[in-house]
Design goal:
Elements: H1 26-36, E1 47-51, H2 59-62, E2 66-69, H3 75-85, E3 90-96, H4 97-103, H5 105-113, E4 119-124, H6 159-165, E5 170-175, H7 179-191, E6 196-201, E7 225-227, E8 235-236, E9 242-247, E10 250-255, H8 273-281, E11 289-296, H9 302-317, H10 322-326, H11 336-347, H12 356-363, H13 367-378, E12 391-393, H14 398-408, E13 412-416, E14 422-427, H15 428-435, E15 452-453, H16 464-474, E16 478-482, E17 488-493, H17 494-504
Parallel strand pairs: 1-2, 1-3, 3-4, 4-6, 5-6, 7-11, 12-13
Antiparallel strand pairs: 5-11, 8-9, 9-10, 13-14, 14-15, 16-17
Helix pairs in contact: 1-7, 4-5, 6-8
């Protein structure tokens, strides 16, 4: 329930002089935020803005709310602690493409995946502005800057795709120059329970002034922006005469008329994960830039889950007391020998006495740990009872490969050559990153072009410890097994290892 308040934009304007470059897009974003906050129904004293380092990170100074100007990339971490400690707060993270996606990348990902109840605003100008114009994690290949005078060679990060990979429950995009749209997007983000991630295209007039040409000019922007509305077809253009339809797995721009109608177009569904990935892949200028709420789903927040655990613990064991916790297990009792050692340190004399019982205790490893290590070294991979391999020839179509995976309910398919030797592996990750939204016809596409070639494979006589090592180092979920002729014999997973140890140590 919203709280009746009589606030306006001026209530959120601080007494600090705003010091961004003249014409910077941050001015428009600041104004939109200040204009939107009176409508979110939260008292001013319950609103907090937290930033890292960068041009955008000056934001807390210009807001007449509580604020924290933190260190580089760590704003999501501070915001996480604050939001959990005080769930009544409306917590806002302000970060840039450099601050949030470079040094702060992992902090951003984990705040998103935990579904912390906070709002993350990522200003994306595809450049480092504060440090005077170096290429950033979102700069396009070929971008010439002081740190890449011959053009950037790096593949840029896609903020929306990254948020999707972290399973953000609310994802949206807007642009600084379209203040009405930005305000509506911010309001929607504030009303979401859980993490909200909003990418804001922001213009850096000094170091990257042409990045959003075609999107920030009201005279032409409607031709280049796809405004998303839940349950409505994806139509765009000044005359609403263009749209987006799906050709196989790949979106395409179509002109309405000549047999193409609204019924042929994609209909936006904020709850569809697959559609959100497709929208994330649509890059301007090949496609109109999707703007608005891309994804909105309801999931348990981290705070609600944590409070539930605390309540369950209190119901089972009662409300705890800090002193009792201190005086519970794992408390050391200072002996006469220990007192003597302390006294010797205070007088400057070194005691040569050693509490042998204490040393023995801290050096003693749990028996279970030793048992696990022994089984991992002594038992071979064959003891895991590997599953029989499901294979497909490298000349097979993607359609056949997908059919095999669905038929056998597997997430990993082994690919062989004409001599039945292992040449590749095709996983659900390959499907997601190389096929969905990219391949129009599965019947004509050949799996050899989309598999991971020459995968690491082991023989069944090797110890389980080696299999675990390969899985850990390379991040594998599955590991193929081959014979002396490099023909597939089976496949094992980390789950097989866990099951084996559970049975062996029972």
């Amino acid at each position: 329930m919203s709280i009746p308040l009589t606030l306006n934009r001026k209530d959120f304007v601080s007494d600090q002089t705003v010091r961004w470059c003249p014409g910077c897009g941050d001015y428009a974003i600041l104004a939109s935020v200040q204009k939107t906050l009176p409508d979110i129904g939260v008292p001013k004293e319950n609103i907090v803005f937290i930033s890292g380092i960068g041009c955008s990170s000056r934001f807390p100074y210009y807001m007449n709310t509580y604020g924290i100007h933190s260190i580089h990339g760590r704003a999501p971490t501070l915001a996480t602690g604050l939001a959990i400690a005080n769930p009544e707060l409306s917590v806002w993270v302000v970060t840039g493409d450099g601050d949030g996606l470079s040094i702060g990348g992992n902090h951003l990902i984990h705040a998103i995946r935990r579904n912390i109840n906070l709002n993350i605003l990522l200003f994306n100008n595809r450049i480092y502005g504060l440090t005077k114009g170096q290429y950033s994690p979102t700069s396009r290949p070929g971008t010439k800057t002081k740190s890449s005078p011959m053009g950037s060679l790096e593949q840029p990060l896609n903020p929306i795709a990254l948020a999707m990979a972290a399973e953000a429950t609310f994802i949206a995009r807007s642009i600084d120059a379209h203040t009405q749209h930005l305000g509506d997007t911010l309001l929607a983000a504030s009303q979401h329970k859980g993490v909200s991630f909003v990418e804001i295209y922001q213009n850096c007039v000094i170091f990257n002034p042409t990045e959003w040409v075609g999107l920030d000019d009201r005279r032409v922007r409607d031709e280049n922006i796809l405004y998303l509305e839940h349950g409505k077809p994806m139509i765009f253009g000044k005359d609403l005469d263009k749209g987006i339809r799906l050709n196989g797995f790949r979106p395409e721009v179509v002109q309405l008329g000549n047999g193409v109608t609204e019924a042929d177009l994609l209909v936006h569904d904020e709850t569809s994960t697959q559609l959100a990935f497709i929208l994330a892949s649509m890059e301007y200028p090949e496609f109109p830039a999707p703007m608005g709420v891309i994804r909105r789903v309801e999931k348990q927040t981290y705070t609600d889950g944590l409070m539930g655990q605390i309540a369950a613990a209190q119901q089972a064991k009662g409300v705890g007391e800090l002193r009792k916790l201190y005086e519970s297990a794992d408390v050391w009792t200072v002996t006469a020998k220990a007192e003597k050692r302390i006294e010797s340190k205070q007088t400057g004399r070194l005691s040569l006495e050693v509490d042998e019982a204490y040393v023995d205790d801290i050096e003693r490893e749990p028996e279970i740990t030793t048992a696990v290590q022994d089984r991992l070294i002594e038992d071979t991979i064959a003891a895991l009872s590997p599953n029989a391999p499901i294979t497909v020839d490298q000349s097979a179509s993607l359609a056949k490969a997908v059919h095999q995976m669905n038929l056998h309910h597997i997430g990993c398919l082994l690919v062989t050559d004409a001599q039945d030797k292992l040449v590749g592996i095709f996983t659900e990750q390959d499907m997601l990153h190389r096929v969905v939204g990219l391949v129009a016809d599965l019947e004509t596409a050949v799996i050899a072009d989309y598999m991971t070639p020459n995968p690491i494979a082991l023989k069944a006589h090797l110890p389980i410890a080696q299999a675990l090592h390969e899985m850990h180092v390379h991040g594998f979920r599955h590991l193929p097994l081959v014979d002396d002729e490099h023909r597939p014999e089976g496949i094992v997973s980390f789950r097989d290892v866990v099951h084996h140890l559970k049975e062996a140590l029972a």
